[in-house]
């Protein structure tokens, strides 16, 4: 089974496990900062993480990486059907993207300005990435469990 097929299967699964996602993560290509530039729509894996409910509540759409030091981590669907960066939603604020070591690899990592939280990225392909949120998750979400999500480049 290809990496893409494994990703699709886990994205559509009713309750994928952290172990399954970690196995996929290990096989993905490292994302570089320049790979992340652009606008992305996102979703998460159905693991019941508290971040899921919070992002659903604010109508999270994705992330905008306009430049390494100009990242909108919380882009939401507006009432008129469009999308907009919402710095107030979910403590989103602003962010930047850097190359940071995670699990022994240097990969593109979004660093929130307002929280001790990091989103690490690896590539399924040029238009799809898997993200793992880690950091001080207990203080933000009430759990120290990692949050697994995905982004697809908007055309």
TrEMBL record:
Residues 93-153 form the DUF4334 domain. Pfam families: DUF4334, GXWXG. Residues 23-81 form the GXWXG domain. It comes from the Bacteria. This is DUF4334 domain-containing protein. It comes from Dietzia timorensis.
């Amino acid at each position: 089974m290809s990496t893409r097929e494994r990703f699709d299967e886990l994205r559509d699964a009713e309750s994928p496990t952290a172990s399954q996602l970690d196995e996929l993560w290990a096989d993905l290509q490292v994302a570089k900062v320049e790979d992340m530039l652009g606008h992305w729509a996102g979703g998460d894996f159905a693991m019941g993480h508290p971040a899921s409910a919070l992002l659903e509540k604010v109508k999270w759409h994705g992330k905008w990486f306009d430049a390494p030091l100009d990242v909108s981590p919380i882009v939401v669907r507006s009432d008129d059907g469009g999308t907009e960066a919402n710095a107030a939603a979910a403590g989103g604020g602003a962010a930047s993207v850097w190359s940071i070591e995670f699990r022994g690899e240097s990969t593109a990592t979004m660093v929130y300005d307002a929280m001790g939280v990091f989103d690490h990225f690896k590539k399924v392909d040029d238009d799809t990435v898997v993200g793992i949120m880690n950091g001080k998750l207990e203080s933000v979400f009430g759990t120290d469990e990692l949050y697994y999500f995905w982004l697809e480049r908007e055309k």
